[in-house]
Design the sequence.
């Protein structure tokens, strides 16, 4: 039981889950201990690569904590106040106030090629020639929640 308790303190048991508009799971992967995941895509207006960086919170929400792109115009498009810096050929923007989400609805298209990246796994959020409506959530693993309750109680 102590080994299990030690394991649970290092991994808080959350996953990022993507469902389509019919409620079917499109992607599901455990988050790393940092709770970090990202969405990479090609910006539709500037046609430049862009990345939205998120961090999951223990309450099931998640925050947009950084934007990055080789195009500074992509960062300006978001109209967020924050610290902007250049690192090599990449511009980064850390918003003064991270945007918090319970769910994030998106439309994946072949042109934008939105891709979820978490725990070194990639999940395309688009289909060939058809827009795909998806919703992203962070969910806690039910099994780990029950085990934690037993350990705490």
Sequence:
């Amino acid at each position: 039981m102590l080994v299990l308790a030690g394991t649970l303190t290092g991994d808080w048991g959350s996953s990022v889950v993507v469902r389509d508009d019919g409620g079917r799971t499109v992607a599901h992967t455990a988050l790393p201990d940092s709770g970090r995941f990202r969405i990479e895509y090609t910006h539709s207006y500037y046609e430049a690569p862009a990345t939205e960086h998120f961090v999951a919170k223990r309450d099931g929400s998640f925050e947009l904590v950084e934007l990055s792109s080789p195009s500074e115009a992509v960062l300006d498009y978001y109209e967020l106040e924050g610290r902007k810096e250049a690192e090599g050929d990449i511009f980064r923007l850390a918003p003064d106030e991270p945007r918090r989400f319970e769910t994030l609805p998106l439309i994946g298209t072949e042109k934008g090629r939105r891709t979820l990246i978490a725990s070194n796994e990639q999940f395309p959020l688009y289909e060939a020639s058809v827009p795909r409506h998806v919703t992203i959530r962070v969910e806690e693993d039910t099994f780990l929640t029950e085990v934690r309750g037993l350990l705490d109680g």
